[in-house]
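Hallway conversation turned thread

IA: we were arguing at lunch whether anyone had actually written out Formin-like protein end to end. Turns out nobody had. So, for the record, here is the sequence (299 residues) and right after it the structure tokens. Reply here if something looks off.
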Amino acid sequence: MNTRETYRRTGFGNSAEKFIKSLLSIPFAFQRVEAMLYKETFDYETAHLKNSFLMLEEACKELRSSRLFLKLLEAVLKKGNRMNVGTIRGGAEAFKLDALLKLADVKGTDGKTTLLHFVVQEMVRSEGIRVSDSITGKIDQKSKNRTAKEKEEDYRRMGLDLVAGLSTELYNAKRTATIDLDVLVTSLSNLSDGLAKLKRLVNNDLGTDEKGEKFIHSMRSFIIYSEESMKELKEDEDRVLLHVREITEYFHGDVSKEEANPLRIFVIVRDFMGMLDHVCKELRCLKVPNCSNPPSPFR
């Protein structure tokens, strides 16, 4: 059967034409459709932004308050200063987090042990001793009469559990590495622009349209709600951007305004946590050293 003939006989063509004609008779029809789409997706968009800002805020708190992460940075700094005694780099008081990603590239005199392995081993032992001296550690030890090697094994086991747990402790800091801050800022700006267009449509373009009274009333109620939500989002944005700048300055010093990615610090943390996880897995497979303080492959 001829498709065109079927289309004509069933009246589909007439129905479509009537629909378009009726649609065009409505004042600002397409603007109304756009307004309804904006209203329909508003809660989803704002929820996504709120969750992203919350994740950023938690990430900043994690980095700033993590005792173990700060101790790890301190251990890296001390080891770096010991290795650079007598040079222009000796006696440093701080370093940029980028340096963490280079620790696996620096190898000791044995040609095998990396600086990252060495720093982690020192951290594992010191944390293991600290925990073993605590009430929890003492309860965990099965016997007081333990050999030196057994004690070292306890220190190593408890210390490894703690150091390996740092990756979980910085969960939000790692997740934040996937966030594109420019996309968040643009999304918030687009929502603000959409709200401005909606207000113009309701207050100006449809202000005298008596037939659209229900639509106008519905949208005015939504405008009140969305204005409050946008105000909260803007406050969230300002607060989070301040936290990001503060945490970056805390670890990196003065921040350049030309920084391509303000969240780069979280990318570094994520990549370093991946390296740390790998080292911890390797250390679990190693045998306990025969002495508590084996000679350092780094001078």
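OS: looked through it. The mean pLDDT is 82.
IA: good, adding that to the notes. The first helix runs from residue 3 to 10.
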